[in-house]
Design a protein that fits this description.
Elements: H1 5-12, E1 16-20, H2 29-40, E2 43-47, E3 53-54, E4 57-58, E5 72-75, H3 79-92, E6 96-99, H4 107-118, E7 123-125, H5 138-150
Parallel strand pairs: 1-2, 1-5, 5-6, 6-7
Antiparallel strand pairs: 3-4
Helix pairs in contact: 3-4
Length: about 160
């Protein structure tokens, strides 16, 4: 299982996290994730090769541009970029990776999980990080509650 509750708690307590694929447009899922994490965590950095800043926060072009490397990275990139972005995280020395992609059955997604595990990097795959934020928006708490009721919440 790549989305254990223990790994999720560990990720949420990391001191420095990057969000890769943050949209420049307000209201987009990746932007909401970035903004909500910034409210809940100590140090969250945006990564987007097409932006110099996101919401007034300096933006890195890639994970390798962040020095020192972040402790954890949430990948919110499209299926075609997931494997190479995961490989960049591995090369950069990231300690944990969260793969949030709607198509968790893609070959790139599966290969990214395999390569991260081979590199000794814990992976959280497929879960929405907003559902696990303490004090998050009520809709995400409701989603978590429904998942608990149905038995699909990570153990």
């Amino acid at each position: 299982m790549t989305a254990s509750r223990a790994n999720i708690e560990r990720f949420m307590s990391l001191p420095r996290v990057a969000v890769v694929g943050v949209s420049r447009k307000e209201g987009q899922y990746s932007r909401i994730v970035f903004e909500e994490l910034r409210k809940a965590m100590a140090d969250v950095e945006p990564v987007n090769p097409s932006a110099s800043e996101i919401g007034g926060v300096p933006c890195a072009a890639g994970v390798s541009a962040l020095q020192p490397p972040p402790d954890g990275v949430i990948l919110l990139v499209h299926a075609g970029a997931i494997l190479e972005t995961a490989r960049e995280c591995i090369r950069a020395g990231v300690k944990m990776i969260w793969l949030r992609q709607s198509d968790t059955t893609s070959e790139g997604h599966s290969q990214a999980v395999v390569e991260c595990h081979a590199a000794g990097i814990p992976v959280i795959a497929g879960e929405c990080p907003l559902m696990f934020l303490r004090g998050g928006h009520w809709i995400h708490r409701l989603h978590a509650g429904l998942r608990k009721i149905t038995g699909t919440y990570p153990a």
